[in-house]
Amino acid sequence: EVQLVESGGGLVQVGGSLRLSCAASGLALDDYAIGWFRQAPGYKREFVATITSSGITNYADSVKGRFTISRDNAKYTVYLQMNSLKPEDTAVYYCNVYKSGNPYWGQGTQVTVSS
What is the pLDDT of residue 47? Predict the structure, then answer.
């Protein structure tokens, strides 16, 4: 069974940094692309970043230049380094993988950026 567990969220001031982790089990992580998404209260879940199995990355325009996605296949973990955080980055952050056509999501981790 595929499981994704996010961690690393918290409360941070504007301009601060956080590193989120997504620990995966139940799959050979190095075979899959992993995505990060976020959902703020009253808004739809939105794409943040993705990293392919070969390490190619893609970012939403709103986070480009501030966030960095990376992976450590040996640790079955994908990271999201978030710098220069803004109040509009406040949301629950989720990681995601598609396996055999089915989407899997973690439980999410809350990020709150205070001004």
Answer: 98
Distance (Å, whole) CA 83 – CA 67: 6
- Average pLDDT per consecutive 10 residues, the chain (115 residues; last block may be shorter): 97 98 93 96 97 96 98 96 98 95 96 96
Is 27 within 8 Å of 99 (Cβ atoms)? yes
Long-range contacts: 38-43, Cβ < 8 Å, 24+?
A: 38/89, 38/91, 38/92, 38/93, 38/94, 38/111, 39/91, 39/92, 39/94, 39/108, 40/88, 40/90, 40/91, 40/92, 43/91
